[in-house]
Design a protein that fits this description.
Order of helices and strands: EEEHEEEHHHEHEHEEHHEEEEEEEEEE
Shape: elongated
Largest sheet: 6 strands, mixed
Bound molecules: adenosine-5'-triphosphate, magnesium ion
Helix content: 10-25%
CATH architecture of the largest domain: 3-Layer(aba) Sandwich
Strand order of the largest sheet: 6-7-8-3-9-10
Structural class: alpha+beta
Strand content: 35-45%
Radius of gyration: 25 Å
Distance between the termini: 45 Å
Number of helices: 8
CATH topology of the largest domain: Rossmann fold
Number of domains: 2
Length: 360
């Protein structure tokens, strides 16, 4: 069983607390992602699981067995490093065989496993090539083959796609996910790319300053952010500062300058400062006399700028008091969306997330 149990793990470097008292349970065969901005402690946590960095406190178990006291080569973990760490002076086969040689496998077993690993990452026939003769995507596959060849219980991937161009990243993330499912191997994936995390993960832990800020399924993290930090980090969002007003059966009214938004019922006091998050794609431009759906509320804004980006049109709009509001609409001739024009926007109040903290 490839479960990973992390309990009260901490690690500082001098005065920097890279990982602060962190506990986490990763399930067997799970594709689990650590997501967060640069410097939040993702690599440090991954290196502690692999055994390359020693925790100051806490315990780590794999399949119930304590491993944080074992040297890296006795942990049965495959790791792909942030910069691949491919040895330039070894052939592709030599690179993949490295861990097996270190573990003193017999030469014929090494040859058999290297061939098998090359097939797995679709590089059959590349064994005798040198690293400088490979593309970025191929090098990345060598790094994965090298991690998998020891048949680890757990696979750790530290920003494995960061050196690839945008198009290849999308292809490769699909390949990694497909391979992981085929092998059923418990995988911890590190990235600072929100879309990548949402696309491949079963669960995501959003990290911030050495802590887990939120843990959940991709939809949950995106739609129900637990804090303003997560809401902002998980892609463009509108953060509106408002003041709680009256509450009725439909919800709570929140004033943002002279505008009023309807949000789900809250137990906020009237007059309390709130932050409202609403995603640009949760706002819809209503055309002409189109009737409002029963579950929608309405908001007036003025268009300041429009940007055509292919599938989407992004509108930079403004509420009556000048509060900026981003709106994303699927490309479709948007009536009256020229700069300066007034538009009506419809939204479902259930898609507004409210935080009882004034936005900074
Ligand atoms: N060996 C080290 N010596 C000193 N400080 C370190 C060391 N390794 C990490 N740190 C510090 O610990 C913090 C967390 O670093 P870490 O590499 O874990 O972040 P990360 O989330 O992986 O960032 P990135 O997305 O940039 O890779 C940072 O402030 C970093 O400067
Ligand atoms: Mg890192």
């Amino acid at each position: 069983m490839g479960t990973i149990a992390i309990e009260g793990v901490r690690r500082s470097f001098g005065s920097v607390e890279a990982v602060r008292h962190l506990s986490l349970d990763i399930r067997d065969s799970e594709f689990f992602t650590l997501l967060g901005p640069s410097g939040c402690g993702k690599t440090t946590l991954l290196r502690m699981i692999a055994g390359f960095t020693e925790p100051d406190a806490g315990e780590i178990r794999i399949g119930g067995k304590r491993i944080d006291t074992l040297p890296p080569h006795r942990r049965n973990i495959g790791m792909v490093f942030q910069n691949y760490a491919i040895f330039p002076n070894l052939t592709v086969a030599g690179n993949i065989a490295y861990g097996l040689k270190a573990r003193k496998f017999a030469p014929d077993e090494i040859a058999r496993r290297v061939t098998e690993a090359l097939v797995l990452v679709r590089l059959s026939g590349y064994g005798e090539r040198w690293p400088h003769q490979l593309s970025g995507g191929q090098l990345q596959r060598v790094a994965i083959a090298r991690a998998l060849v020891i048949r680890p219980e757990v696979l750790l991937l530290d920003e494995p796609l960061s050196n690839l161009d945008a198009r290849l990243r999308v292809d490769m993330r699909g390949e990694i996910r497909e391979l992981q499912q085929r092998l059923g191997i418990t995988t911890v994936y590190v990235t600072h790319d929100q879309e990548e995390a949402l696309a491949v993960s079963q669960r995501i832990a959003v990290m911030h300053s050495g802590r887990i800020e939120q843990l959940g399924a991709p939809e949950e993290i995106y739609r129900k952010p637990a804090s303003l930090f997560v809401a902002r980090f998980m892609g463009t969002t509108n953060v509106l500062r408002g003041v709680a007003g009256a509450r009725d059966d439909c919800g709570t009214r929140v004033r943002v300058g002279p505008s009023e938004l309807l949000v789900p019922v809250l137990d906020a006091r009237e007059g309390e400062a709130l932050s409202l998050c609403i995603r640009p794609e949760a706002l819809r431009v209503i055309v002409g006399g189109e009737p409002l759906a029963a579950d929608s509320a309405r908001l007036e804004a003025t268009v300041r700028k429009t940007e055509f980006v292919g599938a989407l049109v992004r509108l930079d709009a403004e509420l009556a008091d000048g509060t900026p509001l981003k709106v994303a609409v699927l490309d479709d001739p948007v009536a009256g969306a020229a700069p300066g024009s007034r538009i009506a926007l419809a939204y479902d109040p259930a898609r507004v997330t409210v935080f009882r903290e004034g936005a900074p």
